[in-house]
Every structure is written in structure tokens, then in C-alpha cells.
Write a structure and sequence with these properties.
This protein has 445 residues and is mainly alpha-helical. The protein has 19 helices and three strands. It has a three-stranded mixed sheet. β2 and β3 form a beta hairpin.
Length: 445
């Protein structure tokens, strides 16, 4: 076993982490043999450097996380979506006992005074972010009705029942929002336009490499492979009205990877506070919702206006769904059987007015940290926007000083609270070049 400590172990360990990430994505690593076979020799180093739990997570050494194999078909006609949803529910129903056992085990082993979902994280949560994630349970009472939005979207799309789950998940993508034949920018055009905007603000260094994986009917996601040198960006192939928002969100995570300080300790570079990460991505996502920006990205004026209104509605809808997730987490305290857990799920879904399969809602509990991170991230985003507006005025997105300040906050490890403190108190922006960004697309690349 390796006896290297400190910086001497870092290159080997980061190479192992990189290969594990690539292989998990179905890509070849740099080694001649699978990365998992090399992990044992570096396990002690990983533990000493604070990466032992993360290495275990990549290796999948813990109990498997329950999940379905079926993907809801969001491209088929309504009957196709109905059949796909039936298969999805059946698989989730078969997993209900496994899901409940997984949740019950995690809840039982939680330390006193600590939320159950915080006990097996690869990196400890900062105290402020742990509090913010826990406070995300404070959903409106009663939970917001979401059926009116679903019905409004359904009327536009010509769908009879927008509250049926196989339909509202399709409508959330903006399907049926635009008249048939309305042109939308292509995927390559959107990526080029969004990356151009990031580079114009020096948010994405030219030397940061990105491997793009295009996977039909899959969720968009980004993951670090080497920090700050390489990231994987996985994107669906279909373009819908929410694609620009999803892409911008993932590019926000990519920026956080790319601007990590290379000289920081390895564990600090790999530790991402979920509130900070989601809040930052939501801030960038918020900026591409204006009709002006959507026009710059290639949408016709009337299309841009319609899509901008829909994206604001989609946020309200998504936040309502995640509020139910957080409320269900609290409501499961004291529950002892899978049947009772499903009953609680059905009770909490009812006020939304949506036909939401309780087995699918319960399955979402295995990802409760993600839903809480979004809810806490929205609050963080709003605080960041208020600070930027206070310091630079309502036109802050055109200010070079504002972007210099954001880069300074990003180019440091730390918590969501640290990031906000930098935005509120740092004077580094005063030294930035006095340049104003126009809202038009830059072509001098």
C-alpha cells in the first residue's frame, strides 16, 4: 500500500478519481486496467486527504441506492406516454419495500440532532448550509395548488387532462407551448451562444476541457473529472423551451468546477457545498429567462416572450413539487411501514391537485438532499441578486465590476455563506477593468 502523504499522493489520487468518473460515464480512463482495481493501493491516502468517503461513493461500496430503470417517454403521443408511465409506476411499486427499507435504515442510524440525510455525505456540510437545507422543510401551508398551471399548459397544448402525471411531466418541458412548426435554436447553437456569454465574462477558462455526452431522453448533468481541468457535460438531444434553462444551469456547475483554485488542498477542491452550487447555477439560470437574452440566443421575438413567461411558471411549478418532497420527509417521522409511507405521500400530493403516483413520490425521497438544495438555493439566489443589485444597480449584469466580484467569490473554496459574504463586503471589484458588457452577442471569438 502507498505510504505517500500530503501533496505527493494528490496526483495519483486525482488520476484515480478522474478515471473512476470517466468509467462510471461509460468512457475509457487513462489507465491500462479498470480504476477500481487500483483503488485499494490509494485508499489510505484518500482517507488521510479527506477523500475516503468520496472514493467509497464512486466505488459504490455502500448499500445500493434504489432507482428505476424505466425512463418516462416524454417524446411519444399521449397514449405512448400513458403506457410508459404505467411501466414506470409498476417498477417503482415493486421497489417500494426496498425504498422504505433504505430510508428506514438511514433514518435509524442518524446521529441525535442531525438530519438523517446528512449522515452519509461524502463531505461534511458547512453549518450554515446544513441549517439552510433543514429549513427548506418550511413549505407553505397548505401546499400550493399546482393544478391551475398544469391545466393552463394543457389548454395551450390541446391536452385533455394536464393534471395526469404522464401529461404534466411532459408539459413541464414546454411541450405544446408553441404553435407547431415554431423554430427553436438547435442544440449546438444554444451551447455556442451560452458558452460565448460565459467566456465574455471570463467565467470559463479556455484551458478547461469539457467532454460532452449526448444522450436522448436523459436528464442534463455535469460532473467534475479533474479540478480544475476537465468536466463531463451530459445533455439530452431534444431541444424544448426549457433546454436553454437546463443548459445554463449545468454550465453554471461547470464554471464552478473550472474556477476552483488549483493550489487548494485536494479535498477542498472536490468539496462542493450544495446550497452554494445550486444557488449559483440558479442565479445564472435566472439571467437567461429574459426575452432579450432569449432573442440573442436565436429565438424569434414572439417565441422569446412566450418562453420567458413559461420559464417563470415552470419555476413556480418545480418549487411546488420540491416543497412536497421536503414536507413528505418531515411527515415520514414516526412512520413504520411502507404502506403508511405511501399513504402519507398520497395525502401530501393531494393539495397540489395533480395525479401524482405515491410510489413515485416516495422514490424521490432518496434524492431529498437534491430537492432541499434547490429550495435553499432559490433563497440563496434571491439574496445574491439583492446584494448585486444593491452594489451595482439593477443593470448589474452589464457591469464588469459585478462579474469580477462573482469570479472572485467563485475562485475560492468555501460555503454558500462565505460566497454571500464576499459579495457583500469584498472591495476586489474596484480593481477590475472598467468595462461594460453589452447585452448583444459577442462575435469576436
Amino acid at each position: 500500500m502507498s505510504t505517500a502523504v500530503g501533496a505527493g499522493a494528490e496526483p495519483l489520487l486525482e488520476g484515480l478519481l478522474a478515471d473512476l468518473q470517466l468509467e462510471l460515464a461509460g468512457l475509457p480512463g487513462s489507465g491500462r486496467s479498470p480504476a477500481a482495481g487500483r483503488a485499494g493501493a490509494l485508499a489510505a491516502d484518500a482517507a488521510r486527504l479527506g477523500l475516503g468517503a468520496y472514493l467509497g461513493e464512486l466505488l459504490g461500496t455502500g448499500p445500493p441506492v434504489p432507482g428505476t430503470r424505466t425512463l418516462l417517454d416524454l417524446e411519444a403521443d399521449e397514449e405512448g406516454r400513458r403506457r410508459s408511465h404505467t411501466r414506470w409506476c409498476a417498477e417503482a411499486r415493486d421497489l417500494t419495500v426496498q425504498v422504505w427499507d433504505w430510508l428506514a435504515d438511514r433514518r435509524a442510524e442518524a446521529a441525535p440532532g442531525r438530519p438523517w440525510w446528512s449522515t452519509r455525505m461524502a463531505f461534511p456540510l458547512p453549518a450554515g448550509s446544513l441549517h439552510a437545507l433543514a429549513a427548506a422543510t418550511a413549505a407553505p401551508a397548505p401546499l400550493a395548488p399546482l393544478a391551475p398551471l398544469a391545466r393552463e399548459w394543457a389548454r395551450t397544448a390541446g391536452v385533455a387532462d394536464g393534471t395526469a402525471e404522464h401529461n404534466w411531466r411532459w408539459l413541464m418541458l414546454g411541450k405544446g407551448l408553441l404553435p407547431p412548426g415554431t423554430p427553436l435554436p438547435g442544440l449546438n447553437e444554444l451551447i455556442t451562444g451560452l458558452v460565448e456569454r460565459l467566456r465574455d465574462r471570463s467565467l470559463l477558462p479556455a484551458e478547461h476541457r469539457v467532454k460532452v455526452l449526448r444522450r436522448p431522453n436523459s436528464p442534463s448533468m455535469v460532473q467534475a473529472v479533474r479540478l480544475p481541468g476537465l468536466s463531463l457535460l451530459s445533455i439530452p438531444t431534444a431541444v424544448t423551451p426549457v433546454t436553454v434553462q437546463y443548459l445554463q444551469h449545468e454550465l453554471g456547475h461547470l464554471v464552478e468546477h473550472a474556477l476552483r483554485p488549483p493550489g487548494a488542498p485536494l479535498a477542498e477542491r472536490w468539496s462542493f457545498d450544495p446550497v452554494r452550487s445550486e444557488g449559483w447555477a440558479l442565479l445564472l439560470e435566472h439571467l437567461v429567462r429574459s426575452p432579450a437574452v432569449l432573442r440573442e440566443l436565436g429565438m424569434e421575438p414572439s417565441t422569446a416572450g412566450t418562453v420567458a413567461r413559461f420559464l417563470a411558471q415552470e419555476e413556480r411549478f418545480s418549487r411546488g413539487l420540491m416543497a412536497v418532497d421536503a414536507a413528505l420527509d418531515t411527515a415520514l417521522d414516526g412512520v413504520t411501514t411502507p404502506a403508511a409511507a405511501l399513504a402519507r405521500a398520497a395525502e401530501l400530493a393531494a393539495p397540489t391537485g395533480l395525479h401524482w403516483a405515491p410510489e413515485l413520490l416516495l422514490l424521490r425521497q432518496v434524492r431529498i438532499v437534491q430537492w432541499r438544495a434547490y429550495l435553499a438555493g432559490y433563497a440563496w439566489r434571491d439574496a445574491a441578486l439583492a446584494t448585486l443589485t444593491s452594489r451595482f444597480g439593477p443593470g448589474w449584469p452589464a457591469s464588469a465590476d459585478a462579474w469580477a466580484l462573482l469570479r472572485a467569490a467563485l475562485a475560492a473554496t468555501g460555503s454558500a455563506g462565505d460566497f454571500l459574504h464576499t459579495l457583500r463586503t469584498s472591495r476586489r471589484a474596484a480593481a477590475a477593468p472598467r468595462r461594460q458588457f453589452s447585452t448583444s452577442r459577442t462575435t469576436s471569438r
